[in-house]
Design brief:
This protein has 141 residues and is α/β, with parallel strands linked by helices. 44% of the residues lie in helices and 12% in strands. The chain has one domain: Rossmann fold (3-Layer(aba) Sandwich), CATH 3.40.50.1010. The mean pLDDT is 95.
Amino acid sequence: MAASRGILLDTGPLVAWLAEDEQFHEWAVEQFRQHDGALITCEAVISETWFLLRRMPRHLARLRAMLADGVFDLSFHLEDEAAAISALMDRYVNVPMSLADACLVRLSELHPKLPLVTLDADFKVYRRHGRQLIPVICPAK
């Protein structure tokens, strides 16, 4: 069932929110402050975030605490969405599309009313359901 409140969350804003020295930290903090409801993401985003924070133990500890506290809605199941994910990755093979990006596009299809908070300009190229723009929240550059 699609959530009616919340945001879809990409790796970049999550890393920026956790790491005070990141360029978009203040922007990310403001996004989390402005949006209530679910923080919907996928395990691929968590994995990317974990990798990027691997040498920052304090920030990684915050991510682990958020996971333990159930802060994220991780109800997306790659196994259930494998065909849709594969089709998206085939369609955007020239971009190329990461697994996390494909999962977020699919999450946008499943939660059409929710915006995607991202730093990734590729989401201006990606489309959900073939031709629909994905509503994104990203910093002005």
